[in-house]
Design goal:
alpha/beta; Alpha-Beta Plaits; seven-stranded mixed sheet; globular; Rossmann fold; about 290 residues; 8 helices
């Protein structure tokens, strides 16, 4: 059967109330996407992560009246207009899964969707496709994964600060790290990280904690942090306190024109430099002082 699809953009408006209204009006599915090319990275504590421009799409039964929807939703929209289209029914999830392919990062590391064969003699992160688990496609994640692939991680303990769904921590373990800690302020992210670690048979080597639960005495050897530059600047002293002298650092989620600010903010604890750039995004790497 065909469906009526509604789309609109919300800018920085919180989509929660709009989603509720769509569901109350009979939407059978609602999903959010980035209307540009912006990663949804770890916010500061107490902040709600939002894209700069969120695209909302919803499916309604084909006989739903467009004018009624427009009237009911008008009060929730600022400047954006609604657009409607007719779409034929098909197996959306199967089509999306079919388009996913294994991806290599560096020389050894592969991120492999469920149902795909893993390359031999490689470090593999398996994932069940879903909204919460990044596949490394965005430049900020890709640069972190490639950096981890180039590190000698055997015997090290890795801290994934702002873990999302644990991709970087799990990748580090699959690359030979002895242990890792994945931390996030979002409980859903921590649940997803545990599930993904179970799927990759590495939960026994992974601690999944809120930031305040990490003990300073742990002292990690390697840091991978894919979080916003403002958060990196504010939390620099907190993060560095958790690292061994001489710890290797990789900071992502940083735009090229923000790199000097982050490097300056961290200069009291670490020497950082831009080591990789993809589009407008850079990866800052270096060592914690005191090696």
């Amino acid at each position: 059967m065909p469906w009526l699809q509604l789309e609109t953009t919300l800018g920085l408006q919180d989509p929660g109330q709009f989603e509720e209204a769509l569901e109350a009006l009979g939407a059978v599915a609602v999903w959010l996407r980035d209307a540009g090319d912006e990663p949804l990275l770890e916010p500061a504590p107490g902040e709600t992560p939002l894209w700069s421009n969120t695209l909302v799409a919803a499916l309604f039964p084909a006989d739903t009246d467009q004018e009624t929807l427009s009237t009911q939703l008008a009060g929730l929209l600022a400047d954006s207009a609604l657009s409607f289209s007719r779409v034929e029914d098909r197996n959306w999830h199967a089509e999306w899964q079919a388009g996913l392919q294994p991806a290599r990062y560096g020389n050894r590391l592969w991120v492999v969707p469920a149902g795909c064969d893993a390359p031999a003699d490689s470090a593999v992160v398996h994932f069940a496709p879903g909204m919460a688990f990044g596949t490394g496609e965005h430049p900020t994640t890709r640069m972190c994964l490639e950096w981890l692939d180039g590190q000698a991680l055997e015997g090290t303990r890795v801290l994934d600060y702002g873990c999302g769904s644990g991709l970087l921590a799990i990748a580090a373990l699959q690359l030979g790290a002895a242990g890792a800690c994945a931390t996030d302020i979002d409980p859903q992210a921590l649940d997803a990280t545990r599930d993904n670690a179970i799927n990759n048979a590495c939960l026994d080597r992974l601690e999944v904690l809120y930031p305040e639960e990490i003990k300073v005495a742990e002292q990690y050897d390697v840091l991978a942090a894919n979080i916003l530059s403002g958060t990196l600047i504010r939390l620099g002293p907190v993060i560095c306190e958790l690292l061994q002298p001489g710890a290797r650092l990789a900071l992502s989620g940083v735009l090229a024109d923000q790199a000097s600010q982050v490097c300056a903010a961290w200069s009291g604890w670490a020497d950082l430099r831009v080591s990789t750039r993809i589009d407008d995004w850079v990866l800052l790497t270096g060592l914690k002082h005191g090696s």
